[in-house]
Amino acid sequence: MLPDLTRYDRWKLITAKNVRLKRLWPWGLSIQRILAPKERGPAPVRQLVVASDFGGEHKSATHILYVYLVVATGLEDWTTRMAALRHETLGDRTMAYKKLGDGVRQAALPAFLSAAADLDGHLVAIAVDKRQKWLSTQPGMADELRRVFQLQCSWNPRALEALMRKAHFLALLLSVWAPAGAHVTWLTDQDEFVANDKRHDDALLAAGRLSSMYLDQPMGIFALNTTAQDSARRHFEDLCSVADLMAGLLSDARAGLPSEANWAVEERRVVGPDLPLKAQVLLDWFADRGMRLRKTLISIDYLGAQSMVRELWTESDLIPEPPKEGRALSV
């Protein structure tokens, strides 16, 4: 008798299409294998919202960070609580990691994180070693990919890789969580890959077509919005800020490692004692497995000539070492 293959195992099936995808992007299958057991299959909803933010572009960073907040339900309560928080404390400020030196934002942070914790969804962060230059494309493929995906802009190879990588990670998340017929809204900040209308359209095309490679069932409306298109109530911005805070935390945590160390717990220290206070607060929140919102950190490290994809920071890994005696922690 054939095994019972549930609908959320569809990407595991040995079909010609899936075999091609696994050969082209074996790291994608590894990401699916990490994420799929964390859920019971596609979310039983008609609307998925995915908010994203990216980090690690500065020269001292060893990894580029791709953070996605996938939300199934709980948005109505979230927007109500955000409206109250803005009225009482935050005002028109953006909740951003780099701006947490501001006392008003510090005062608003606990309520902001509490509201995010009650979202029914998953916060997924993917840290990619900068030595891994090509994941979704290869050198010399730019013209062919522009033709296949019907892209309008003249993307140089590096910019095209950045676009395709961000869209590809989104497609992998949808392959795990998007049910048939669901409408998907992707929210992102004002990043270079959506810097103008033509780039925005190309990003929408790339994400839609990459998603169709992983999803066999028909989908609903797919939309891409940036924080530049936000309303005065800042709904887009607030969701993207959850991803921004996580990207900032990961940047600071990785910066505390020796230059030759990777993220592996075995090689100590994933979490050092000298993190800024704001990072420690966020680390405690990330480590809390008792909340409705699930969280996962995945790294794609470049080891020799191979890539290693793995999940990092399980609950036991997130216990920071005590600070050195007499050393103050700065915000």
Looking at this protein, list some descriptive labels.
331 residues, alpha/beta, 9 helices, 7 strands, 18% strand, disordered C terminus
Layout of SSEs?
Elements: H1 16-24, H2 26-35, E1 47-55, E2 63-73, H3 75-90, H4 103-117, E3 120-129, H5 142-149, H6 157-177, E4 183-188, H7 197-214, E5 222-226, H8 235-255, H9 277-287, E6 294-303, E7 306-312
Parallel strand pairs: 1-4, 3-6, 4-5
Antiparallel strand pairs: 1-2, 2-3, 6-7
Q: How would you characterize this protein structure?
A:
This protein has helices at 16-24, 26-35, 75-90, 103-117, 142-149, 157-177, 197-214, 235-255, 277-287; strands spanning 47-55, 63-73, 120-129, 183-188, 222-226, 294-303, 306-312. With 331 residues, the protein is of the alpha/beta class. The protein has one domain (15-318). A seven-stranded mixed β-sheet has the order 5-4-1-2-3-6-7. Strand 6 (294-303) and strand 7 (306-312) form a beta hairpin. Helix 1 (16-24) packs across helix 2. The longest helix is centred in the middle third of the chain and has 21 residues, at 157-177.
